[in-house]
């Protein structure tokens, strides 16, 4: 049997493309819990544009923003954009990665303050951009944190679907043989983490999307069938 560990939940639609793979077992491991923090901040949507880089960022401040009529924001990822729109927010633009979002910010002219709603372990790309471009008004607001779960030793997998560097970090000590597992990475920051942790075999999706990762996995499974 071929074992695949996903570090994010996969639904039935996700797994449909593997319905004919009777020798593949999927297991989901949640590497951490999300703890939302008390937010004591004077939100001012008339003068601010909120940066949401994850769905958890949207969840973390929805109670604070529900009393305002107009919320302008920018997002990373289609699911984050969809959730923001479901909350009634106006999404000015979206990027698939932080680098793409920064490029769009560079071409966006506004006198408003960008407020980055983020986790305590957020990546530095966005903050670094604003630090280097101090003429653009910017605030960082930490509204949630990830609490790592204790993960016991697991049976050796052939593949791991890694959706973030922190998720991969939380599980790597439980892998018996790092040379016998292939990591399917959602993006470049996760693949860089593979290098840091000593994984030799990893593949990066062409765009940071779960569907793209699953198609990559399918390709790898098909290659195994031919060997």
Secondary-structure map with pairings?
Blueprint: E1 2-6, H1 12-15, E2 24-28, E3 32-36, E4 48-52, H2 55-65, E5 72-76, H3 78-86, E6 90-95, H4 98-106, E7 113-119, H5 125-132, E8 138-148, E9 159-162, H6 165-171, E10 182-185, H7 188-197, E11 202-204, H8 210-226
Domain Tetrapyrrole biosynthesis uroporphyrinogen III synthase: 48-213
GO cellular component, one term: cytosol
InterPro entries: 4pyrrol_syn_uPrphyn_synt_sf, 4pyrrol_synth_uPrphyn_synth, UROS/Hem4
What does this structure look like?
- With 227 residues, this protein is of the alpha/beta class.
- It contains eight helices and eleven strands.
- The protein has a six-stranded mixed beta sheet with strand order 3-8-7-4-5-6.
- Helix 1 links the parallel strand 1 and strand 2.
- Helix 6 runs parallel beside helix 7 (188-197).
- The longest helix has 17 residues, at 210-226.
- 30% of the residues are buried.
- The model has no long low-confidence stretch (mean pLDDT 92).
């Amino acid at each position: 049997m071929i074992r695949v560990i996903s570090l994010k939940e996969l639904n039935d639609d996700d797994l449909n493309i593997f319905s004919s793979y009777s020798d593949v077992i999927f297991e989901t491991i949640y590497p951490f819990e999300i703890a939302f923090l008390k937010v004591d901040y004077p939100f001012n949507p008339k003068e601010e544009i909120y940066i949401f880089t994850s769905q958890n960022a949207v969840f973390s401040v929805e109670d604070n923003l529900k009393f305002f009529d107009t919320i302008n924001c920018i997002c990373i990822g289609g699911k984050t954009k969809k959730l923001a729109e479901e909350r009634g927010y106006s999404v000015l633009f979206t990027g698939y990665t932080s680098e793409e979002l920064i490029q769009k910010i560079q071409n966006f002219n506004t006198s408003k303050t960008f407020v980055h709603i983020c986790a305590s372990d957020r990546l530095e790309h966005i903050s670094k951009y604003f630090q280097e471009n101090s003429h653009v008004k910017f605030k960082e607001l930490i509204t949630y944190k990830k609490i790592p779960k204790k993960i016991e030793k697991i049976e050796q997998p052939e593949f791991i679907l890694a959706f973030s560097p922190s998720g991969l970090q939380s599980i790597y000590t439980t892998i018996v043989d790092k040379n016998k597992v292939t990591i399917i990475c959602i993006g470049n920051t996760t693949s860089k983490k593979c290098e840091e942790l000593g994984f030799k075999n990893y593949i990066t999706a062409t765009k940071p999307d779960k569907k793209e990762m699953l198609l990559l996995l399918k390709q790898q499974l098909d290659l195994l069938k031919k060997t």
